Hints:
alpha+beta, single chain, Rossmann fold, 6-stranded mixed beta sheet, disordered N terminus, 38% helix
Amino acid sequence: MFSGKEFPSSSSFLAAYASMAGSIMMAQSIANQLSHLIPHHVRSYLLSTLRYFFKPQSPILTLVIDESTGIARNQVYDASETYLCTKVSPKTKRLKISKTPTEKNLTIKLEKGEKIVDNYEGVELQWRLVFAEAEKNDSHNPFQPRNVEKRWFELSFHRDHKETILGSYIPYILEKAKSIKEEVRVLKMHTLNNSQGYGGIKWESINLEHPATFETLAMEPDLKNIVIEDLNRFVKRKDFYKRVGRAWKRGYLLYGPPGTGKSSLVAAMANHLKFDVYDLQLANIMRDSDLRRLFLATGNRLILVIEDIDCSLDLPDRRQVSKDGDGRKQHDVQYYP
C-alpha cells in the first residue's frame, strides 16, 4: 500500500549529500584554522574537559594511603600493613617474610603489586600495594639520596560506601593493628644504669623473659581472679579516669619476705597486660632532677616497680622494725597504659 506522497528523487539525495559533505569540510577547515590560533595546552584542556563530561563516571572510589606524609610516617599506612598480614588468602601469590632475634614470630608483608580482598559489613574492598621509583634528586649533591622508592596502598570500593569506610573501617583497622602489635610485642625490662658518665643516670633495657603467668602463679584462685579482673577493668576505663580528672594509673603494694613471689606477680601482670617493666631503686637517685628525667624517659603501657619503698625514707618506725629483725620487704607497683 502506498501513500499519496512521492519519494524523493535521486537528484535530491545527491544534493543533500553534497551539502553535508561541504559542511563537514568547512568544519574541518575551521577546526584546522583554530588549531593554529589556540595554544596546544588550551586545546588539551578543552578536550580533557569534554571527555570528562561525556565519559561515564566509574562507581569505584580509590583511596591512596602513602607510606609517609613527607614529615613523618603515615600511621594509616603502618596500620594497614599490619592488618593486611592477617588477611592473606590462598590466592596470594607472593609474600615477604622476615624475623629478627627479638621477634617471637615471622613478620609477613605483601610483595609489590599484590592484591588483597577484604569484606567489611557486607562491603567488598580491594587492597593493592604499589611501588614506584621517586623522582631522582640532584646527582651533583652527595648528601641527597638517589633512586628513592615510594610505596603506597590503594584501597578501592564502591563510592556509595565512602562514609562507612572513612568513618568506621579505617578506625577499625587502626585499632585492630594496635592489638595485633601488642600481641606480638617483645616485652622489655628496664633497669637503671648506675654509671655517672655523660648524660647521668639512665634506663637500660633487656628482653623480659620471665616465664611467670597467672596460669602458673602459686596464688589463691579467688585472689588471683580478683587481681585479673581489676587489671582488665583498669585497662578499659581510660575514658572514666579522664572524665573524673584523675591520672590513668593504678598502684599495688606488695608486702612480704624475700621469696614469697612478689617479683613473679609483677612478671605475671606484665605478661598479662603486655606492659614493659621499669625497675626503679630510689636509693640510686641522688637528685630530684634525675628522678624527673627518668620519669620523662619512660614509654607508654608500663609497670613501674619501686623496690624497697619502705627503705626510701629514714623513718623511726622503720628503724624500730629493723631492730626487731623483721626481714620483710616491700614493693610498690604502679602501672600505666
